[in-house]
Design goal:
The chain is α+β, with helices and mostly antiparallel strands. The protein is built from 12 helices and 16 strands. Helix 1 runs antiparallel to helix 5 and helix 7 packs antiparallel against helix 8. The longest helix is centred in the first third of the chain and has 50 residues. The protein is elongated and about 130 Å long.
């Protein structure tokens, strides 16, 4: 047999996944922190620049500015002591605070005239200097050159400096008339530097925490998943040799979850098979050897099926009963039920093709796969069947297939969501009416095609309603004349039941089968599951 090549191990996949998750988390946290801090920093700079503009406006005598504005010889003001005093004040503030520009100007329709400017006015010839508004400047001046100015900040671009933020505040004369605006500009470079320092200060501990969390999670996954799976894989490869050498398989796996359950099932299977080999070796006749094989397979099959009734004595919303009777030749029928959570109950009935030990082992593997997969898709039977179908195909060396009916009951509402993989039609009883065959849409059997899809449908079960599912051993029960019981006989038998109690229905159906076959030997299992919503 050609050895199949596999891709990356589950350990590597886990590492890669955690690395990708860590990168996504770091990028997300960095983006959020940068966005929030940038907004806060811009607000802070707005308060600072607005404060400097207001301080200048309150410091300067508006009457002097008014006198300057109406003067025909504005250059004469350059040597005025008050002019010098204000210029010195503006220069001092700019030098000590890191402001890019600190100035006073008179706004006009399309431009502005600087009265004081700590950056551009250095002689009398610099007075009368007028400059056009930057983009958005005119509109911003209109908002601030008023008696009740609207606070804000204007972000623009200055050649050689880059982005700057500007704030203005009005200057009034003694009659409280608007005469000019005081302006303070800061560079956005300061915002960027602060933002970079903040991100570095925050992200180093965040990165450290994320790395520690990823390492801790990987260590946990390695202990609880990767190592146990490697152990199972290693033991399975040497299982045949261990059986020949009569070596017990002991798996020290304590994950307290489905992995440990699978390990226990593996140990149980190994023990049963080893016991089976011992029995076969001690038998002297072919008939006894075959009988031992069937007995062991039947024990394996029976041991995997839940047989405690009522299964959930604390639940008062429904009655549930199920049973399987194996024929002379052991088959692969099985049923299962389990709570996915407090409000969802999974119901399963299935039939594996073929007979004997291979069918029983396939039944056990399929049952575990459905149980584990249902925990990942607790409300979607279609998704569960799709995933199990892929896993059955991956390990289907015997080319066996499985028919499955799977339903998930939402206990609080009575809504039953179902999917059918080539199994028999369910039968539904409505309170006060009769049992009727429900012809649902069938998908392909499990193990046939890799990309099979399974459509879902819902059935609303009210109080008193019953759903009955079964394997083909019921309608195909055969009498001594090779006549099958058939669907009509089965549905009529259901409608003649003395009670709608699930246990009564199943026991009476077995009686109906016995009445029909009249002692004829059967070669197929008969398996049934019945659920009733309590009144």
């Amino acid at each position: 047999m050609k050895k199949k090549k596999y891709g990356r191990s589950i350990g590597r996949k886990t590492v890669y996944g955690l690395i990708i998750l860590g990168i996504v988390m770091i990028i997300s946290v960095s983006g959020c922190v940068a966005f929030i801090y940038q907004r806060q920093t811009l607000d802070n700079f707005q308060d600072i620049t607005s404060g400097y503009a207001k301080s200048a406006a309150e410091y300067i005598d508006g009457d002097y500015v008014k006198k300057y504005a109406h003067s025909e010889n504005k250059k004469a003001f350059y040597n005025d002591p008050y002019y010098k005093e204000v210029q010195k004040y503006l220069d001092s503030i700019q030098n000590n605070t890191g402001l890019a520009y600190y100035y006073v100007f008179i706004p006009y329709e399309n431009d502005m005239e600087y009265v004081w400017d700590s950056d551009t006015i250095h002689s009398a010839d610099d007075l009368n200097h007028r400059e056009e508004y930057m983009e958005g400047g005119k509109e911003f001046v209109e908002k601030t050159f008023r008696k009740n100015p609207k606070p804000g900040i204007l972000v623009g671009y200055e050649e050689g400096i880059g982005q700057i933020s500007c704030s203005f505040y009005p200057i009034f004369d003694s009659d409280h008339n608007l005469v000019a605006l005081a302006g303070a500009d800061t560079t956005m470079e300061q915002v960027k530097v602060r933002l970079l320092h903040f991100i570095l200060a925050v992200m180093i501990p965040v990165l450290t925490v994320i790395i520690i969390a990823i390492l801790a999670w990987y260590r946990y996954m390695k202990k609880k998943l990767i190592i146990p799976l490697h152990t199972l894989n290693s033991v399975s490869k040497t299982m045949a040799q261990n059986l020949k050498e009569d070596v017990d398989v002991e798996l020290d796996i304590n994950t307290h979850d489905e992995i440990e359950e699978l390990a226990d099932s593996f140990e149980f299977m190994n023990t049963e098979i080893r016991d089976y080999i011992h029995q076969v070796e001690n038998l002297t006749s072919e008939k006894e050897r075959i009988g031992a094989e069937l007995d062991i397979a039947r024990n394996i099959q029976d041991g995997m099926l839940p047989q405690t009734f009522p299964p959930f004595p604390e639940r008062s919303e429904f009655d549930l009963y199920a049973s399987m009777k194996a024929a002379k030749e052991v088959g692969g029928d099985f049923y299962d039920y389990f709570l996915l959570d407090d409000d969802h109950l999974a119901l399963v009935i299935a039939d594996v093709s073929g007979k004997g030990v291979p069918a029983a082992l396939t039944m056990m593997a399929t049952k575990i796969l459905i149980n584990n997969t249902a925990l990942m898709h607790p409300t979607s039977p279609g998704k569960i069947l799709e995933e199990v179908n892929k896993q059955v195909l991956d390990n289907n060396g015997a080319d066996m297939f499985v028919t499955v009916w799977l339903g998930i009951l939402e206990i609080s509402t009575g809504t039953l969501t179902c999917a059918n993989a080539g199994h028999e039609y369910p039968v539904i009883y409505r309170e006060g009416k009769s049992f009727e065959l429900f012809k649902d849409k069938h998908g392909l059997v499990l193990g046939a095609m890799p990309e099979s899809k399974y459509s879902e449908y819902t059935v609303k079960l009210d109080k008193g309603d019953v759903i009955y599912v079964y394997t083909d051993g019921v309608p195909e029960a055969t009498d001594n004349n090779d006549k099958q019981m058939g669907m009509n006989y089965m549905v009529d038998a259901l409608n003649n039941m003395p009670s709608t109690n699930p246990e009564t229905i199943i026991n009476e159906m077995y009686n109906a089968i016995d009445d029909f076959i009249q002692g004829a030997e059967q070669f197929d299992d008969t398996t049934m599951l019945c659920l009733r919503i309590k009144k």
